[in-house]
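Let us practice reading a record.
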Amino acid sequence: MSYAFPPPTSLAWTIAFIALLVALLVSIVACGIRPPKSNCIWGLAVVFWLTCIPVLLFLSGPIDLRWDMLMLIRKGIISLSLGAAVGGYLELFRDQRVTRNYYGSKAHCLTFIGLLVLTFVLLEPIGHPREASNRSTCKNNLKNIGLAFHNYHDTHNRFPLNVGQTPARSWRIDLLPYMDQADNYKAYDQAQAWDSAHNSPLAKVKIPAYQCPSVPAGELRDASHRLFTAYALLTGPRTASDWIKKHNLNLPDGTSNTVFVAEACGQQIVWSEPRDVVASPETVGVNLPGAKPHQSAGVWSSYHKNGAHTLYVDGSVRFVDANVDSKVLSALATADGHEAPELP
């Protein structure tokens, strides 16, 4: 059995949110058409909803909802909250004679609905600021990784691919001094395995440049609380890492046309683990299904909308759309195909 990556919208949460919003709308409209006799009731209602709304906004963050649905829900909550606040406070402070007037109440009801629609329309062009910020951070992470790779190469005249080394050591460990993480590099004992008693605690230390902020909070660590990395080197025959081991940076396809590191959240690789993603005809793809929820068998996998970031050998970073043809991806993953593919 395979599971979609990222997991689809949770139907139960979606139904619960929509039901809550509908209940809120109905209750406010009902009170507008048939207003309560006491302003105290309106005051309590306003306080109740204005207390609930920040809680709902807070809870909607870590819930695993797809981007479009989450934006729709948040817009609805904000629109209802503004309408509820304005309508409620108008009812609280208006003249008592108007409170008992049916047509006055109906006018307030229509005012609330107008505010609701207007707010929703005004919020429509607004993007998802947190996701935009996350994508920018993720892209900068890969840029910093690329810069660290080339600074390491300038110092050692090679990349930290550690071919045939015993015990095996990840390139993510070797790049730590070039990413302002010298203390963590010194804490790692290269004479011991990455998961030894001495080195295991380091896997629980967060290295911001190795994590994508769009990954859900519940998917950042494994059962032993070791942190996953969002980025993996492409390995396997004809990949950049395979070619560089033998010929250094003399890539036939050019460094600007060959992928080096991919955003691979679905691989769930512990950041200090000497493991990466194998590029093959079966795995070249974006957000391919996985054997378990939150896992992907593809080279590229991310929690961003419609694609994933990728680092090229020359240090540039581009976004790979989820709908890019697999032939283009295969050409980008190989170093000696003599192609110059371009992403759409």
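A brief commentary: DSSP finds ten helices and seven strands in the chain.
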